[in-house]
Here is the input.
Amino acid sequence: MKINDKEYLTIWHEDDQVRIIDQTKLPHQFIVKNLKTVKDAINAIKTMEVRGAPLIGGTAAYGIYLAVKENNNSGFIQKSSEDLIQSRPTAINLKWAVDRMMKKLLGINSDELFKIALKEAKAICDEDINFCKNIGLNGLKIIEEIYNKKKDTVNILTHCNAGWLATIDWGTATSPIYHAHKKGIPVHVWVDETRPRNQGANLTSYELNEEGIPNTIIADNTGGILMQRGQVDVCIVGTDRTLSTGDVCNKIGTYLKALAAKDNNVPFYVALPSSTIDWEIKDFKEIPIEERDPAELSYIEGLDKDSKLQKVLIYPQKSKAMNLAFDITPAELVTGLITEKGVCEASEDGLRGLFK
Ligand code: MRU
Here is the structure.
């Protein structure tokens, strides 16, 4: 998708370099960074220079390529794969991508390793672009149906950033929105700010602006009253891990939006590529929920009056804070899962009907 009218992906290989857009600097600064080593890839994932489940997976795939390039000793590659998997715990795409890379490299002679690793990392990213495009085409039908009944702008609420910046291109939750916009269906997006890291305000609103899609940032607790007032036609969110049972793990606050949606009969959809499905865990309590530094809550960064980036403390100095990054939305609150293969019920039967 576009930034300043130029097409970008979120990660790419060019001039023998792996390049990313540093998302910690958006929306105020646009900085492209080179990842030179597997440590750079791990650091980019931990510090959230790259984030969003599919992009974390793509970066981990390139991380394995960088490890092979650095040192093709099998012990080093194995240790790098373990360090990559540890870098963020919740998004299943990370382990999925590392496992796929390691399987591909198994038993290959050392001269070819580096080329095969690069080819597979690119294949993982290309596949994600294709998945997200198809998620968009499948989700478009939902937006189109609402528009055909309403004959007026479709208001969509989304949480966090499940946009193209969270994937390689198109996004998951935003892909149906981009497809609807391209088809001439009038859409407007309510963007949850998404405290504490403000991915909604900093990334979703930013990328929608760049594509010319009308959107309004709201404080995280505003969705409920908008739904009571009939100002939300549909909610579409992303996910970091969806169990085969249909339970959805996503950015903290998603669950409360789903509860409000249920109470107000607003359809609540989750958009995901198959790489985000966890076929192993059955009990959502077993999903590792990332707990991040409380300083992400107590400090906030923005431009000062001289347009300089500044970080300021906004909490009482003596207060304790807790920063859980994800929550679980039980399957019964989810209207449907929008995948690359079609839309299904949030249940084992629904998912198996599409995927196995
Ligand atoms: O902490 P983040 O910014 O990595 O969290 C991202 C989300 O919660 C997204 O909704 C999810 O990864 C889906 S990405 C298409």
The pocket of MRU is lined by residues 51-54, 91, 160, 162, 166-167, 171-172, 199, 238-240, 250-251, 325 (CB under 6 Å). The mean pLDDT is 97. The first strand starts at residue 2 and ends at 3. Residues 285 and 328 are 9 Å apart (CA to CA).
